[in-house]
């Protein structure tokens, strides 16, 4: 896995041959779970996909799951939620970096690019939307993790598509 700057990841995607273009996967990395969202074929809309259990002991299995998704969904990169609004040494920021480092060490995702995107209260926003529904805690947590990943990926897609559009009009 290789880190690239947010705009560069999308520019590389747009420059690719139409047959080589792929989708992006949004990740909301938490202590126990990783919420997963996927972009549409044209990388304009994010949709919820799943929630994966996160344990140090299952990182190889998670990498294998990601490998399956790469081929199944034609994935070319990860957009990883990162708490930019906080100091770098916070536990949330450290756990995101450790997760990406652990995934990279498996060597199962070679050639895949990733970038970090500000998760900016995505979980809190989803929590506020779900609260009036009075869902059971387990169901609420699963939905929250998935839609936090959607918020991260959609925020990224909106930004890069706006930037791409403004570059074309200038």
Automatic annotation (TrEMBL):
Gene3D superfamilies reported in the protein's UniProt record:
YqgF/RNase H-like domain
Check the record and name the Pfam families matching this protein.
RuvX
The answer on whether this UniProt entry bears the keyword Nuclease reads yes
Q: Which SUPFAM superfamilies match?
A: Ribonuclease H-like
Q: Which InterPro entries match?
A: RNaseH-like_sf, YqgF, YqgF/RNaseH-like_dom, YqgF/RNaseH-like_dom_sf
Transmembrane residues, as ranges?
none
Signal peptide span per the entry?
none
In this protein, which residues make up the domain named YqgF/RNase H-like? Answer: 22-126
Record's protein name: YqgF/RNase H-like domain-containing protein
């Amino acid at each position: 896995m290789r880190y690239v700057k947010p705009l560069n990841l999308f520019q590389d995607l747009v420059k690719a041959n139409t047959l080589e273009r792929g989708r992006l996967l949004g990740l909301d990395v938490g202590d126990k779970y990783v919420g997963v969202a996927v972009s549409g074929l044209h990388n304009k809309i994010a949709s919820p996909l799943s929630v994966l259990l996160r344990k140090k002991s299952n990182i190889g299995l998670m990498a294998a799951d990601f490998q399956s998704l790469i081929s199944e969904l034609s994935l070319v990169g990860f957009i990883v939620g990162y708490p930019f609004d906080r100091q770098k040494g916070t536990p949330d920021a450290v756990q995101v970096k450790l997760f990406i480092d652990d995934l990279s060490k498996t060597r199962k995702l070679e050639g895949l690019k990733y970038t970090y995107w500000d998760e900016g209260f995505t979980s809190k926003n989803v929590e506020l939307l779900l609260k009036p529904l009075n869902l059971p805690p387990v169901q609420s947590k699963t939905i929250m993790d998935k839609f936090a990943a959607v918020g991260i990926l959609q925020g990224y897609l909106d930004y890069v598509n706006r930037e791409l559009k403004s570059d074309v009009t200038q």
